[in-house]
Amino acid sequence: MNPARVSLRSVTASVAALAIALFLGGCGEDEWHGKNITGLMPELEFELIDENGDPVTEEVFAGEPVAMYFGFTHCPDICPTTLARLAAAARRLPESIGKNLQLAFVSVDPARDDPDQLERYTDAFSDRMLGLTGTQKQLRALTRRYRVTFGYEEPGADGSYEVSHSSAILVFDAELEPRLMLLDDLNVAQIAEDLERLLEGSRSDS
Amino acid sequence: MDQLLAFFVPWEFSWPVQLTIWGSLLLYWNGLRRSRPDELPGHGPVLAFCVGVVLMYLVTQTYFDYWSQYMFFVHRGQHLVLHHLAPFLIALSMPAPVLARGLPQPIRAWFARRRLLRALWIRLYRVLQQPLIACVLFVGLIAFWLTPEIHFDAMLNSTLYWVMNWSMALDGLLFWWLMFEHGKRGITPRLGYGTRVLLLAAVMVPQIIIGASITFADQVWFDVYAVCGRAWPVAPLTDQYLGGLITWIPAAMMSVVGALIVLRFWIYSDLTGKTGAAGAPASA
């Protein structure tokens, strides 16, 4: 048997082993309702302004988990329903751990969403939801970090325009590492279960 | 003007892509410089090679890549270029002899001395170029990356995204290289012209099925574009519909154009009396 044949066989064997390992890895038990993104993306980092008009960084959330959603206040349907589900899920959490959860709404439409508008909007969903926005550059830096984006339609005759944005809620743990992506097909109970599991995990870690 | 310049700033700069693209253009140019007049390819092949390579660059190392990541139909266009159009043009130009002449002599000599490496490479290459394997790979990769769950992860994870695009480009080169192999024999198996036309027809059918299924789907299969946000507001089903059409019609057309070119080789080889492998069963 010539050496080339032997090597080819061992190469084939290793490729097959790798494929099986990947396949099994992909089938691992994963009980989250949302998508587990642990290790897929970098830790939270941003420079934005909050609903009081003050500059803030990710430090404002450090120490406790945070659920973050990107949208705009003139959003006709997806943003209000998603934020309402998130707020309802947060209210369902047991008081002892639920109080630690932080909620954040990042407007990607700074031209229309000033701090006042943001504050009114987020308070309508939950008094613990913090509204954030920033310059285009700041917003692009943050969205790009999590491989999401946003874009604008040409304004109509009345000056209104549609904004495309991510439909998922990003959840970060207390160390601000991205952990979960809650897609828009989850109901309140499922969101609450995922949040509870994450909050309990971060409590036992500390 | 600023907008035009901004277009050429790579959305995700990649050293491997930059080195491959500029390296192959440099090699080709050097190869042309070193060719004897009777070895020079015509203007057509030189143009086809350069356009093919530049197209690959434009869809991966410009702002086009941003749209591809955040709009399904642009992503389908990117893969049409990476897997069909650009490798089609590159393979049609049969650049191997020119590229080999472009390699610095020490590297050629080094590779010639590595018998085992050479033997391994040729064996692996010939396995990949078995007609059945080549066709399964060609269609299988399209289907694999369009599997909704896999597509989701590929768009979310930057490593997987690059694996996807590289695999499409490399497989495109393999397939079209096998289809357009002619002239002086190299290590690529020489298939009969009839076989090639048959294979081109065979890969067209599953592509039509995949493309048409996406086009006529009444629900969104690829929700990662909603999850990550689209480059600009477009109804998800419209985006998917356009993406399906691109997967279906131009991709299938490339098979037809490829078959016409193979037929031309066939007629030409008959006219010049060089029987080659025309009509012969696939030897590899």
Under the CATH scheme, the architecture of the largest domain in chain A is 3-Layer(aba) Sandwich
- Backbone CA Rg of chain B: 20 Å
**Kindly, what is the distance between the CA atoms of the first and last residues of chain A, rounded to a whole number of angstroms?**
59 Å
- The number of helical segments of chain B is 14
- So how many helices of chain A? 6
Q: What would you give as the CATH superfamily of the largest domain in chain A?
A: Glutaredoxin
Q: Number of DSSP strands of chain B?
A: 0
Helix percentage range of chain A: 25-40%
Q: Share of helix among residues of chain B?
A: over 70%
The largest sheet of chain B, given as strand count, sense and whether it forms a barrel, is:
none
Summarize the structure.
By secondary structure, chain A is α+β, with helices and mostly antiparallel strands. Chain A has helices spanning 3-26, 78-92, 95-98, 115-125, 136-145, 188-205, and strands spanning 35-36, 47-50, 55-57, 66-71, 102-107, 129-133, 151-152, 163-164, 169-172, 178-182.
